[in-house]
From TrEMBL:
Organism field: Microcystis aeruginosa Ma_OC_H_19870700_S124
Top-rank taxon: Bacteria
Oxidoreductase in keyword set: yes
Protein name: Ferredoxin--nitrite reductase
Pfam families: NIR_SIR, NIR_SIR_ferr
Segments forming domain Nitrite/sulphite reductase 4Fe-4S: 135-292, 393-502
InterPro entries on file: Cbl_synth_CobG-like, NIR_SIR_4Fe-4S, NiRdtase/SiRdtase_haem-b_fer, Nit/Sulf_reduc_fer-like_dom_sf, NO2/SO3_Rdtase_4Fe4S_dom, NO2/SO3_Rdtase_4Fe4S_sf, NO2/SO3_Rdtase_FeS/sirohaem_BS
Amino acid sequence: MVQAPEKDGTTLNKFEKFKAEKDGLAIKDELDHFAQIGWEAMDKTDLEHRLKWVGVFYRPVTPGKFMMRLRIPNGILSSEQMRVLGEIVQRYGDDGNADITTRQNLQLRGIRIEDIPDIFQRLKSVGMTSVQSGMDNVRNITGSPMAGLDADELIDTRELVQKVQDMITNYGQGNYQFTNLPRKFNIAIEGGRDNSVHAEINDIAFVPAYKEGELGFNVVVGGFFSAKRCEAAIPMNVWVRPNQEVVDLCRGILEVYRDNGLRANRQKSRLMWLIDEWGIEEFRTRVANHLGYPLATAAEKDAIDWEKRDHLGVFPQKQEGLSYIGLCIPVGRLFADDMFDLARIAEVYGSGELRLTVEQNVIIPNIAAENMATLLTEPLLAKFTPNPTPLQRALVSCTGAQFCNFALIETKNKAVDLIRQLDAELNIPQGVRMHWTGCPNSCGQPQVADIGLMGTKARKDGKTVEGVDLYMGGKVGKDAHLGSCVQKGIPCEDLKSLLTSILIEQFGATPKG
Ligand code: SRM
Ligand code: SF4
């Protein structure tokens, strides 16, 4: 069959073809029908791709048991919402669970297609949506997990994040204006001084900056990871006020990217490739022309001057007499009972609010001083401790082979097992940020870690075995920069001895007596 030529003379890739045939979002009106006919009878493209426009992911590893990716703006949800999510996964027994993601978000597992209409009703009843959370859409928008709580905060990001999400999704109804981007798109809004959102790895990030004494944001663009290329975001030389200007700039950039982004080769479709083609000056000019007004030039320097905090433990809030507690959720994995317990604890001791972090952990804010001692005796804190070991506290892992068909290795269980063994044998004087990712797509962000492990196939004794490529030197917080691959093809079974040496030689660890 002859493919339709693209405007640059090349042919459309298969994703562009099926998007042109039917917008992915159109699937939202067919969910009752799918529930009736069952997944086996669905059109293959609807099943494997278009469902992702409403956040429903067919999992070839577990056919018939779908994953649902939500949107949780700024990572903030209520106990009521958490309870509804817990009820959704509870009905799937051992197949049901939820993962906190590296974008301050939740993914539910075990979902059956026949339940989707009912699940969508339940989400709607508590003001949640999963719309446009996968494929060529804007992902969950991240913001400072301490927004509104932190005495040293510069800008409260909560309302801004919500407004940007509402613009992109038409208040969660779905918005055809932004459902056919050339590729996925990440937006982050930082309001603190420690770059809690990893600004550098987003397609657009807003970073607090004072311009002539006025507080606003400098804007960086084009950061991304992919199997072929990883780039930190670069300055766009734009400064915006922390109001509608943020929303308008996001809209302008998205429209320019939508209308001009490269669509022939999916490996070269992220925003940075367009910036490469035009140059950053031209990109800035085109966005300003599109918006129809001049953009203010960037402030000389941004206001990120702190090391990144992990928020685990108990800390005072800016509100007199209130504190928050950060709980370590090993590799972000939650089961229904955990979700009910977290919801209950947030209600009994706090204000019913829960927050998620990009390190896949949970924060419960607004706890009165007199309630903290009792909270600390809650049995759940034995599983989700506020005082983890230096290796536990900074462990992040992507989904891996248990559910993800791209994975070259299993990740989450390996990650937890390995640090348990290392903790048993070593005294480690400082936090060591270890990130696991199951394949070069880098969802687990090994490039931001002290020690990053990327799944691969390795050779050992003439056999192909599960292995990792080792990344080191990722720096987060102020002066963030990406780490790089320092060793390739390490068999997983050799990892413990290698990491023991690295922890002793480079992180001051000492063997336990
Ligand atoms: Fe990711 C694709 C999981 C954050 C880069 N990612 C996938 C898919 C959807 C592949 C698939 O269909 O199986 C994975 C779903 C597996 C599953 O069943 O859970 C998946 N990505 C994840 C999550 C759940 C990892 C985690 O355990 O936390 C994260 C969900 C975030 C969210 O709530 O939306 C997740 N993915 C990321 C990040 C990190 C980030 O955003 O900070 C990245 C690198 C940053 C970036 O995108 O620039 C990332 N994911 C990718 C890529 C490579 C993108 C590219 O331009 O090539 C893919 C593959 C693709 O899009 O073709 C991918
Ligand atoms: Fe799947 Fe690879 Fe992303 Fe891990 S990094 S979730 S294995 S696509």
